[in-house]
Structures are given as C-alpha cells and as structure tokens.
Fold:
Amino acid sequence: MTEKTVLPESTVSQLERISIEIDLVASFVDLITKRYGSDAAHDLLKEVVNDAAAKSAALFLIQYPNPTLHDLYEIWKILGGDGRLDIVLDDLTEKSLKFRVLQCKYAEMYQSKGKETLGIAFSCKRDEPFAKALMPNITVQQSKTIPEGNAYCAFEYTLEEV
Structure:
C-alpha cells in the first residue's frame, strides 16, 4: 500500500511551520487578552482552531472521501510522519480506534517555548473538530495529553450509529 500524502508541499517543514505559528498565535492571544479579556481570547482561539481543523480535514477528504477509522489512523500516521509523533495502536475495529502518542515533537516545541497551555488550546484541541469534520458521527475521547504533564496522549474514537 502506498502512503497517501495530501499536505501541501512546502520548503518549510511541518515543525518549522508550527514553530512560527506558536509565536504568532501567542502574540495574538496576548493582544486579544489585554484588549478584550481572557474569555474573548479563548473564544476566538477556539474559532480559529475549529476553522483550521475543518480546512485541514477538507484536504484529506479529497483522498479519503468516505473515511473509515482505518483511514483516520492512516491520516494520523501521515500527520505524525518524519518522527513528529510516536504512535502506538492499541485497538482498531470498524467501530473503535484507540491509540497512544508516546512522543510528540509538537508538544516538545510548545514546551521549549514555555507555551504548553497554548499547545493544548491550539494543537490538542484541534483533534476533535478535525475528526468530526472527517466523520460527523464520531465520538472523540482524549483523556490524556503530554502537554498536561502525562507520559503520553490517549485517544479513543468511536463511531456512533447513524
């Protein structure tokens, strides 16, 4: 099976792009917080994250027009390519996908900049709207994340009956 890649080609690596985004988003959140308060900043960041997740999912829907949980796992492997994520599959059926991320270069980058909270809001919180944009009948459980101080991120996706 050949690996499917739908991410746009760029001279900037995915990790370099995230590093740039961290600095820009942190400045944006600080400015919005100062002007309008932390609730407004949180609400706007959530909108940005949901929009980014939907746009990213739309790119994958081109190659996976009717994605299954197996496809979702393949997409996670694409997103974690080049050593960005160390993913361990725990369970994969037609109705359930469970895996852990043991190492996350994204989380490490946020941590190196002292922005773990931003990492949770800007990256970790993108996972559920991304999955729902791919598969509207999916339930997402993200019980642990590395930026919250856990040893790994735990994901569980379940398909609901339509």
Observations:
- Residues 38-63 form the longest helix (26 residues).
